[in-house]
Amino acid sequence: DVKVTQSSRYLVKRTGEKVFLECVQDMDHENMFWYRQDPGLGLRLIYFSYDVKMKEKGDIPEGYSVSREKKERFSLILESASTNQTSMYLCASSFRTLAAFTGELFFGEGSRLTVL
Amino acid sequence: DQQVKQNSPSLSVQEGRISILNCDYTNSMFDYFLWYKKYPAEGPTFLISISSIKDKNEDGRFTVFLNKSAKHLSLHIVPSQPGDSAVYFCAGGTSGSRLTFGEGTQLTVNP
């Protein structure tokens, strides 16, 4: 079974703090993604990575950065947390295939971040 | 630009009846679509997918229909069960690229 593990299920941080969200997958997937889920807005892509040390901006990258030093690990960084970054953060991974890309993503359980 | 829209935030059905969840998209380049199910405090899990070359895909109680001319897809669950109560997300994408998700629909199946 594919396992995507997010380091913290619940975090409470103060405005201005630097926040690290860690994600590890154990299936040798090339692709990794960070989404946030907000009521009425669905899942919005923050950043993704197709390979080690490679990153691409998603739809809402402002206020975030990422790091992928190893294939299995993808970190999301909030340089200076703000209250509008209070959200559920979801990490996902998938294989990168050349043909018939099914697009199936495997998600972690999520990290609920509250910024006070 | 919301490329994938789920216009119904919630849906309530009786156990044993059919649940129909709808999704509209605007990007005509999408060539595959997926549905994910999400329980509270868990990550979304893949449910069913359909390629744009098909108009129907069935997996047990779950069937997805695609109407390309209308840029519309729907998920049918028959018969609905209380354990199906969850948030359902539809998503579209182009081969080799990333998925775009809708807002989600909260399905409640009443015993």
Compact summary:
With 116 residues, chain A is mostly beta strands. Chain A has strands at 4-6, 10-13, 19-25, 31-38, 42-49, 56-57, 64-70, 73-78, 87-94, 106-107, 111-115. In chain A, a hairpin with a 3-residue loop joins strand 4 (31-38) and strand 5.
What would you say this structure looks like, in words?
The complex is a heterodimer of chains A (116) and B (111). By secondary structure, chain A is mainly β. Helix content of chain A is 0%, strand content 52%. Chain A has no helices and 11 strands. In chain A, a hairpin with a 2-residue loop joins strand 7 and strand 8 (73-78). The radius of gyration of chain A is 14 Å and the shape is globular. Chain B has strands at 4-5, 10-14, 19-25, 32-38, 45-51, 56-59, 62-67, 72-77, 86-93, 99-101, 105-110. Chain B is mainly β and 111 residues long. In chain B, strand 9 and strand 10 (99-101) form a beta hairpin.
SSE blueprint:
The complex is a heterodimer of chains A (116) and B (111).
Chain A: E1 4-6, E2 10-13, E3 19-25, E4 31-38, E5 42-49, E6 56-57, E7 64-70, E8 73-78, E9 87-94, E10 106-107, E11 111-115
Parallel strand pairs in A: 2-11
Antiparallel strand pairs in A: 1-3, 3-8, 4-5, 4-9, 5-6, 7-8, 9-10, 9-11
Chain B: E1 4-5, E2 10-14, E3 19-25, E4 32-38, E5 45-51, E6 56-59, E7 62-67, E8 72-77, E9 86-93, E10 99-101, E11 105-110
Parallel strand pairs in B: 2-11
Antiparallel strand pairs in B: 1-3, 3-8, 4-5, 4-9, 6-7, 7-8, 9-10, 9-11
Q: Major β-sheet of chain A, in short?
A: 7 strands, mixed
Radius of gyration of chain A: 14 Å
What is the radius of gyration of chain B? 13 Å
**Residue-averaged pLDDT of chain B:** 93
Annotation field: number of helices of chain B: 0
The share of residues in helices of chain B is under 10%
The low-confidence runs of chain B, each spanning 5 or more residues with pLDDT under 50, are none
Instruction: Name the pair of protein chains with the most residues at their interface, and give those residue counts.
Output: A-B, 28 and 27 residues
> How much strand of chain A?
over 45%
